[in-house]
């Protein structure tokens, strides 16, 4: 049971570069989410997706792009990375809407932007 | 907007009970969750409670919900060193019923 996997686990890049974080789930969950975790802020929602080809903004979407061409994958792209995007990024999925179903998290990607 | 508050740190002795507290502001919350995060790992769902309940017990875990005061607590009985982690409460409510997380409480268990 693979569950939800994120790659890479660690990434170092430079400002201005494009970087894509991958998220893959094997449960066929409808909903997928991207969060960032920063000291003093807990987890904040970046983007979410209710189904393939349906995405919507969360609390902190600026500077990020997502896509969901297949149910099992939900990549997050930083088109031109900035130092303020240094963070730990978590992907999550749930069977149904957040109000009805718990979310299950991947192990995170630690991203450093120099 | 919604706000979820937790104390930053809790230290207990092995074998004692731990109580982690959480307050929230959104009275329309449907579910309230407790997640555990160990170093270098993602968030693991521990337990959750529906807003029409006031208590839920699951082995060593007891969740208490006071809707009037918008207060949620997680009690861990017979705390073990393996319980050392960061604990997050989260509630669903507001626009789109998205999860809003507290800042996390770091639990340290001393042998």
Tell me about this structure.
The complex is a heterodimer of chains A (114) and B (111). By secondary structure, chain A is an all-beta fold. In chain A, 0% of the residues lie in helices and 51% in strands. In chain A, strand 4 and strand 5 (42-51) form a beta hairpin. By secondary structure, chain B is mainly beta. Helices cover 0% and strands 57% of the residues of chain B. Chain B contains no helices and 11 strands. In chain B, the strands form 2 sheets. In chain B, strands 2, 4, 5, 9, 10 and 11 form a 6-stranded mixed beta sheet that branches. In chain B, strands 1-3-8-7-6 form a 5-stranded antiparallel beta sheet, with no helix packed on it. The chains are: A mainly beta (114), B mainly beta (111). The A-B interface holds A 40-45, 48, 56, 58-59, 90, 92, 97-100, 102-108 and B 4, 30-31, 33, 35, 40-45, 48, 88, 92-93, 96-99, 101-104.
Helix content of chain A: under 10%
Q: Which segments of chain A are poorly predicted (pLDDT under 50) over 5 or more consecutive residues?
A: none
Number of helices of chain A: 0
Overall SS class of chain A: mainly beta
Compute the average pLDDT of chain B: 91
Please compute the radius of gyration of chain A using only Cα atoms: 13 Å
Secondary structure topology:
The complex is a heterodimer of chains A (114) and B (111).
Chain A: E1 4-7, E2 10-13, E3 19-25, E4 31-38, E5 42-51, E6 54-57, E7 64-66, E8 76-78, E9 87-94, E10 104-105, E11 109-113
Parallel strand pairs in A: 2-11
Antiparallel strand pairs in A: 1-3, 3-8, 4-5, 4-9, 5-6, 7-8, 9-10, 9-11
Chain B: E1 4-6, E2 9-13, E3 18-24, E4 31-37, E5 43-50, E6 55-58, E7 61-66, E8 71-76, E9 85-92, E10 99-101, E11 105-110
Parallel strand pairs in B: 2-11
Antiparallel strand pairs in B: 1-3, 3-8, 4-5, 4-9, 6-7, 7-8, 9-10, 9-11
């Amino acid at each position: 049971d693979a569950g939800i996997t994120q790659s890479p686990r660690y990434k170092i890049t430079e400002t201005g570069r494009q970087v894509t974080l991958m998220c893959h789930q094997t449960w066929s969950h409808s909903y997928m989410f991207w969060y960032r975790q920063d000291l003093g802020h807990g987890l904040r929602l970046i983007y979410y997706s209710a189904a393939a080809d349906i995405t919507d903004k969360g609390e902190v979407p600026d500077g990020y792009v997502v896509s969901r061409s297949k149910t099992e994958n939900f990549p997050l792209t930083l088109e031109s990375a900035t130092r303020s995007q240094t963070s730990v990024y978590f992907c999550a999925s749930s069977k149904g809407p957040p109000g009805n179903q718990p979310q299950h998290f991947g192990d995170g990607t630690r991203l450093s932007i120099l | 907007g919604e706000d979820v508050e937790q104390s930053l740190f809790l230290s207990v002795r092995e074998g004692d009970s731990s109580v982690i507290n959480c307050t929230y502001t959104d009275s329309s919350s449907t579910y309230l969750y407790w997640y555990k995060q160990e170093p270098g790992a993602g968030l693991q769902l521990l337990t959750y409670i529906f807003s029409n309940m006031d208590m839920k017990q699951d082995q060593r875990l007891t969740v208490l919900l006071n809707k009037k005061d918008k207060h949620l607590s997680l009690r861990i009985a017979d705390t073990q060193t393996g319980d050392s982690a960061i604990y997050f409460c989260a509630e669903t409510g507001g626009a789109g019923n998205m999860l809003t997380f507290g800042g996390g409480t770091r639990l340290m268990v001393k042998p």
